[in-house]
Design a protein that fits this description.
By secondary structure, the protein is of the alpha/beta class. It has a single domain, classed as UDP-N-acetylmuramoyl-L-alanine:D-glutamate ligase, CATH 3.40.1190. Helix content is 34%, strand content 20%. The protein has helices at residues 26-36, 64-77, 91-101, 128-135, 146-153, 163-171, 215-228, 233-249, and strands spanning 12-20, 40-52, 55-61, 82-85, 108-110, 141-142, 177-181, 190-194, 199-203. Strand 5 (108-110), helix 4 (128-135) and strand 6 (141-142) form a beta-alpha-beta unit. Helix 3 (91-101) packs parallel to helix 4 (128-135) and helix 7 (215-228) crosses helix 8. The chain is globular and about 45 Å long. Residues 20-262 form the Pyridoxamine kinase/Phosphomethylpyrimidine kinase domain. GO terms for molecular function: ATP binding; hydroxymethylpyrimidine kinase activity; phosphomethylpyrimidine kinase activity. This is Bifunctional hydroxymethylpyrimidine kinase/phosphomethylpyrimidine kinase. Its EC number is 2.7.1.49, 2.7.4.7.
């Protein structure tokens, strides 16, 4: 496992995602998560959203040449120990990012963002197939929620017993590991991690807290941070889950809608 010595750069993690003007999700959540988990976060902005606690009022994807230039800048000079992808918005951007990441040897965590916490679409309809056929095959870990599982595979999960079939369906699309997030099911939240053979289940206390904006971005970024530090995938996921559970418990109100998780929750008394 990588340790950070004074005068040395910490592990390097790149997020390729959309900007959240409200600061709770997207690039902003990714960078806060990376700082809180002891790595140096870098960003390629693929889209800009106008977003607050009430929802997404609009989004604008960046031109492919702008996204490619950002990727080239970071990868050619600084390098990466892990990559996390989030909102990629369009088919052209999904295909571009997939092409670049196919040549990156570092682990890649894909958060296959389809809709926001408020139900706003963040992915063009024709981009879903590109996520399915181009992006997932380059993923070390993919972290779909139940809606995204259905969007990608057609498999609808109604209770925890259906999560293995969902994981198998996503695994067939080519990622090394699948983490199916079951937080939308009733009862104790349970996630299933699967590599085609081994199965790991993670449970967490459900907090009576509606301030959960940014949980998906935060979890994927925490997993990427742990992989950059040299953790094996199951341990990287377990530690990321513990971090996110604490962040949800410390979530706070913001605006008049859904507030964010608290990315620095374990630093508050440091």
């Amino acid at each position: 496992m990588t340790s950070h010595q004074p005068g040395q750069a910490p592990p390097l993690v790149l997020t390729v995602a959309g900007s959240d003007s409200g600061g709770g999700a997207g690039i902003q959540a990714d960078l806060k998560t990376m700082l809180a988990n002891g790595v140096h976060g870098m960003s390629v902005i693929a889209a800009v959203t106008a977003q607050n606690s009430l929802g997404v009022q609009g989004y604008w994807e960046l031109p492919p040449e702008a996204v490619r230039a950002q990727l080239d800048s970071v990868l050619s000079d600084i390098g990466v120990d892990a990559v996390k992808t989030g909102m990629l918005a369009s088919k052209a951007l999904v295909e571009l990012v997939s092409e670049v990441l196919a040549d990156v040897s570092a682990p890649v965590v894909v958060d296959p963002v389809g809709v926001s916490k408020h139900g706003d679409s963040l992915l063009a309809g024709d981009a879903v197939d590109a996520v399915r056929t181009r992006l997932l095959p380059v993923a070390t870990v993919v972290t779909p929620n139940l809606f995204e599982v259905e969007q990608l595979t057609g498999v609808k999960v109604v209770d925890e017993s259906g999560m293995r079939a969902a994981a198998e369906a996503v695994k067939e699309l080519g990622p090394e590991w699948v983490l199916v997030k079951g937080g939308h099911l009733p009862g104790e939240p349970a996630d299933l991690l699967f590599d085609g053979t081994e199965e790991y289940r993670f449970t967490a206390e459900r907090h009576d807290n509606r301030h959960t904006h940014g949980t998906g971005c935060t979890l994927a970024s925490a997993i990427a941070s742990n992989l950059a530090k040299g953790e094996p995938v199951p341990e990287a996921v377990e530690k990321a889950k513990q971090y996110v559970t604490g962040a949800i418990a410390a979530g706070f109100p913001l605006g008049t809608g859904i507030g964010p998780v608290h990315h620095g929750w374990h630093l508050r008394h440091a």
